[in-house]
Inverse folding.
């Protein structure tokens, strides 16, 4: 784990797992409003997983993971507005925009959550951008005496990066949200 940091008011910050980064205000309010206008118009579908329909709705571009077939398949190209948002995600992550070949847009209605999981192995680094409202973003990994855990409030217009150790060894989840929220998650494909 990386060491603690001190904020401007002297309060210790959590020790984030190696490979985790978070930054608020990656987007300005005007850019977020423009993105939300496009995102709200997307043809979302209910997320289904092993016969279960989740409370969140999704749409993928570039690539889509087929949970029934357990494989990646080509999806429609990213619309222009998501390519523009990808510029912000890539700049934050220190990557070239073209390295982020997949995007998953999720709509979380009030009460929607996502359980503990690790993204599928076909994906490498993960860059998430939060829109409209905040959520609690939780991380955990197994330890000798239970779980090692850390969480943060992912604010609107913020971004997070999962890379390296945190990507491969930690699970993440979002408990039920109180208000409508959108997340735009970019991923690259593993090269192995």
């Amino acid at each position: 784990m990386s060491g603690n940091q001190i904020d401007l008011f002297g309060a210790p910050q959590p020790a984030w797992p190696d490979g985790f980064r978070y930054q608020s205000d990656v987007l300005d309010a005007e850019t977020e409003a423009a993105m939300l206008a496009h995102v709200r118009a997307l043809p979302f579908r209910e997320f289904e997983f092993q016969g279960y329909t989740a409370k969140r709705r999704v749409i993928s571009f570039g690539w889509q993971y087929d949970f029934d077939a357990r494989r990646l398949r080509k999806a429609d190209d990213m619309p222009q507005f998501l390519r523009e948002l990808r510029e912000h995600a890539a700049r934050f992550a220190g990557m070239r925009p073209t390295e982020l070949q997949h995007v998953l847009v999720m709509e979380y209605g009030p009460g929607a959550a996502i359980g503990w999981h690790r993204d599928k192995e076909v994906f490498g680094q993960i860059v998430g951008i939060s829109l409209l409202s905040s959520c609690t973003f939780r991380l955990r990994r197994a330890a000798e005496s239970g779980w090692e855990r850390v969480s943060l409030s992912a604010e609107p217009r913020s971004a997070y990066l999962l890379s390296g150790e945190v990507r491969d060894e930690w699970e993440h989840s979002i408990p039920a949200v109180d208000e409508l929220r959108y997340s735009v998650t970019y991923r690259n494909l593993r090269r192995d």
Remarks:
- The CA atoms of residues 60 and 88 lie 18 Å apart.
- Confidence is low (pLDDT under 50) at residues 1-8.
- Helices lie at 29-40, 80-93, 165-169.
